[in-house]
Amino acid sequence: MVDFNIATVLTPEIAMAALALILLAIGLLIPPGARKGMMPLTAFSLLGVLGYTLFDFFHGTKALFLDGLYLHDQFAVYFKVLFLAAALLVVLSSGGYVQKLAEHRGEFYSLIMTATLGMMIMAGAGELITMYIGLELMTISFYILVAYLSDDARSSEAGIKYLVLGATSSAILLYGISLVYGLTGSTQYTEIASGLGANLSPASFLATVFLLAGLGFKISLVPFHLWAPDIYEGAPTPVTAFLAIASKAAAFAVLIRVYLLMMNSQAFSGTGQTLLVVLAALTMILGNLIAIPQTNIKRLLAYSSIAQAGYLMVGIIAESVAGVKGVLFYAMIYVFANMGAFAVATHVSEKQGSDQIKDFAGLARRSPLAAVVMTASLLSLAGIPPLAGFVGKFYLFSAVMDSGYTAIAYIGFVMSMVSVYYYLSVVKVMFLGEGEGLPDIPVHGAVKFTMVFTMLITLAIGIYPTPLAQMAAAAAQSLIK
Amino acid sequence: MGTVVFFIFAIMAIAAAWGVVTSKNIVHSALYLVLCFSGVAVLYVLMNADFLAAVQLLIYTGAVAIMIVFAVMLTLRGDISVSNTENRHWGWGALVAALVFIIMALVILANPDWRILATPWTSGGSAEDLSLLLLTRFMIPFEAAAVLLTVALVGAVVLAKGVKESK
């Protein structure tokens, strides 16, 4: 047993909770004129926590505590780094949106902090109740963020839709948890695994399906994806970015733990595997095909993110260290690629008041930097070398082929080819479109930094993936001994 | 004796739940909800989960249902007797609910090895036991729930007041 202090191990979580409350208080205390400082303040504090968590990943004490109810392994810390990086980029690119708010600016950042805290608890949870509380903390923060502007009818509508559908999915998840508890008498992953034993009964299968449905909603796995396009379209764009990137990654962190720790029995493997293969194939096929006719950039990115969830599922199906490593690697580069695309979409829609793809016409002339960043991000999502997305897909698909599932890998290849078409059609509009009468869009400050930073990271990891791949491999090994 | 009480209150809870869904008047629906929650509270008592029963009465029956009635009174305009309007998808909803019920019932009845206690649970479940668990093993979800409640409060204020766009 390693000697450790709970407070040291939980530092990032405690820091995030404290920061959320401090931001709330500062938002109330300082005069309205000084509230421009909220964004840099949030960004720098997030940077501090991110730096500490990165240090923790390499050098910190790793421990299971409270009888293994909470896990502080490299897997959890890797995901915490991912959430914090995503939150930081979202905060940096949200300055323009927050400037539009007449009041409650502090609360906006505070809610981003609490959503991040919920995700961190999800990643660390070693049992179902802790996981559920973390999930609700994240989801309730998102309900509020999605419906933030009361003037905006689409935003309010998206908020109501997300609330109703999210509550339904939570109910299904709870049903699954209660079935699991009834079957095994425990909520802890490892004890459940031994309690479920070797045979797959109808009851344990139903519990699995309910758990998968509840988590699949957050991941927007087909057939639980129907909420995603409407809510992504209606929500404020920075919130959409956070929802598409971080909440999905958090649900993946839970799904990997649930699937590989809790349902790893021989009997489950066969049936569960078939279920996952079918769902992953459907997700990749439908997500990519429905993305093709979209005319709104946020809906296009929504369907593309559904398809990306399908690629990530492929790594879980592999059920190996290489597969989990692929998921971790891809989830991280997905943060940067998607964040770049969303940063450009946010900026353009704020300056032009439109999310239509046709209004991106001539962006290459009107705002060269934004057009280049968008192109790099989309090509990375499509998996074109030398960008990071190519390496990520290579890890995912080679892992699943090594595990003997060739069919799903081929579906992934073909659908990646299909995705190139709709990603490139956006690029075509930006570079070849005329864009007569549309304004020039200058890019400054934090938004410019976000765009350049995400593009550089996407390019750098694509050319030299080794450091991130080593981190992902270490995290995957901490999960599967 | 216990079985008789169980069936009386279980049937009451289910009948009340039916009333919630079918009633045309939303205040009646809310009152049926009170009845339904109270029935469930009695079931908790039968399982010797006294504290849970008290919490169920206080929070669900007391706070949630009364809040619904208040919200209805403060916001509703027009004739209250047709406030819970007919749902067009009633048939589909009933079909899905019936299917889920049948599947669940079949699976639960078919499964032989539920973790059923050999002797009925007589001790524990008191506030003291729960508080010990909450402050030791379940410390992290307990603290996170506190943050969650703060978030819900902030959210209620933000959404109820409404955030305007600045000029």
Layout: helices, strands, pairs:
The complex is a heterodimer of chains A (481) and B (167).
Chain A: H1 6-9, H2 11-29, H3 38-59, E1 63-65, E2 70-72, H4 74-93, H5 95-100, H6 105-124, H7 128-146, H8 153-184, H9 189-196, H10 202-219, H11 227-234, H12 237-262, H13 266-291, H14 297-318, H15 321-352, H16 363-366, H17 368-382, H18 388-402, H19 406-432, H20 445-463, H21 466-479
Antiparallel strand pairs in A: 1-2
Chain B: H1 2-22, H2 26-46, H3 50-75, H4 90-110, H5 127-135, H6 139-161
How would you describe this protein?
The complex is a heterodimer of chains A (481) and B (167). Chain A has a domain at 265-481. Chain A contains 21 helices and two strands. Chain A has helices at 6-9, 11-29, 38-59, 74-93, 95-100, 105-124, 128-146, 153-184, 189-196, 202-219, 227-234, 237-262, 266-291, 297-318, 321-352, 363-366, 368-382, 388-402, 406-432, 445-463, 466-479; strands at residues 63-65, 70-72. Chain A has a two-stranded antiparallel sheet. In chain A, helix 4 packs antiparallel against helix 12 (237-262). Chain B is built from six helices and no strands. Chain B is globular, with a radius of gyration of 20 Å. Chain B starts with a helix and ends in a 6-residue tail after the last helix. At the A-B interface, helix 2, helix 6, helix 7, helix 8 and helix 10 of A face helix 4 and helix 6 of B.
The end-to-end span of chain A amounts to: 17 Å
**CATH C-level of chain B:** Mainly Alpha
Which two chains form the greatest contact, residue counts included?
Answer: A-B, 48 and 36 residues
Percentage of β-strand residues of chain B: under 5%
**Helix/strand order of chain A, N-terminal first:** HHHEEHHHHHHHHHHHHHHHHHH
**How many structural domains does the protein architecture of chain B include?**
1
Q: List the uncertain runs of chain A.
A: none
Q: Approximately what portion of the residues of chain A adopt beta-strand conformation?
A: under 5%
- pLDDT averaged residue by residue of chain B: 84
Shape label of chain B = globular
Report helical residue fraction of chain A. over 70%
Number of continuous helical runs of chain A: 21
Taken in chain order, the helices and strands of chain B follow as HHHHHH
Largest sheet of chain A: 2 strands, antiparallel
CATH-level-4 superfamily name of chain B? NADH-ubiquinone/plastoquinone oxidoreductase chain 6, subunit NuoJ
Mean pLDDT of chain A: 89
Structural class of chain B: mainly alpha
